[in-house]
Amino acid sequence: MEDNLILIFTRNPELGKVKTRLAASIGNEKTLEIYKFLLQHTQEIASNVEASRRVLYSEEIIKNDIWDNNLYQKALQSGIDLGEKMKNAFADGFENGFKKIVIIGTDLHDLEISDIEIAFHELENNDVVIGPAEDGGYYLLGLKNIPANIFSNKRWSTETVLKDTLNDLKNYKVHLLDTKNDIDTIDDIKNIEVFQKYLV
To answer: Which of the listed residues 28, 79, 80, 163 has the most CB atoms within 10 Å of its CB?
Structure first.
């Protein structure tokens, strides 16, 4: 679908710079291994969705990495905080002619191809699609245009983000996806089998 764009916000996978709350429990090396595992999972999901794809790096664009240059456009995140960075990424996508844009991060082991496909489908009849995260944020946001204030006056990476966002969207038609668990701390992974090898 040439009108659909997936934005993937990623941190450059550098030792000591990813998932610091998780690293406080299990150390930087194992945390980086987990982060690379999550990157690979996200890449496999996004590669199988029929849409254009754009990876936005936190620090620098990496030419030769898991994000295939033939499948993924590559850019840098730009802005002061997460809200401004997302707003700029959406604005660039709409300026490039895309009609429906979905943004995801790279810390969701629960993410499935169907989550993104459903988001694009629900944007047919809704203004906004949100994938709520268990920690009070969101793991996916789908837009057809940028609602006023959706990216401003938020305490990013806190438990109030989803609630405050929904308050700003009272005059819009919003579809909520299933709530999922994004991975920030050891409590988020300690009972998931695939992560046990990193915890021994």
So the answer is: 28
Report whether 58 contacts 11 (CB < 8 A).
yes
Distance CA 62, CA 110 (A): 26
Instruction: Report pLDDT digits (tens) over 41-78.
Output: 999 999 999 999 999 999 999 999 999 999 999 999 99
Half-sphere exposure of 61 (CA within 13 A, CB side): 13
Q: Token match 């009070």: residue?
A: 136
